[in-house]
Design a protein that fits this description.
RidA family protein, 30% strand, 60s Ribosomal Protein L30, Chain: A, two-stranded antiparallel ribbon, 141 residues, alpha+beta, 23% helix, 2 helices
Length: 141
């Protein structure tokens, strides 16, 4: 994970803030603007093959969130996470892939990382990314 917020791939910002709420844009598994993984999740591939792209996308969402924290602030609670997964025919392990992102949030934030979540299969994602993650977070001291 880098300290710089992820580079937007279009006409948007990595995250917005209103009061104590921070909402991220959908984050794909990119480093320095470069998509590191491509292609849909396949039913015939081991679920573990998708851990790395999910973790990278989740860490990008956390980085975008932290970029909007004021000095002395922290993530008080992750309120919601949406995990979009580009899937091929027959793929049904959406929740198992989303569990990789949930584990990142728990590792970094403990109980503050436990949140409501949706895991959604889609036909495609920007740049042929396998996953896109969006967070809604409460900031606090």
């Amino acid at each position: 994970m880098t300290d710089a917020p992820p580079v937007p791939q279009g006409d948007y910002v990595p995250a917005t803030r209103h009061g104590d709420l921070i909402t991220t844009a959908g984050m794909t598994p990119r480093q320095a603007g470069q998509l590191m993984f491509i292609g849909p999740a396949r039913a015939d591939a081991p679920v573990g093959d998708y851990r790395e792209p999910v973790v990278l996308a989740c860490r990008n969402a956390l980085t975008a969130t932290r970029a909007l924290l004021a000095p002395g602030e922290a993530i008080a609670q992750v309120l919601s996470m949406t995990v979009y997964i580009a899937t091929g025919p027959g793929f049904t392990a959406h929740s198992r892939l989303a569990d990789f992102a949930s584990a990142v949030l728990r590792e970094e934030l403990g109980e503050r990382g436990r949140c409501a979540r949706a895991a959604i299969g889609v036909a495609s994602l920007p740049g042929d990314a396998p996953v896109e993650i969006q967070l809604v977070v409460a900031a606090g001291r």
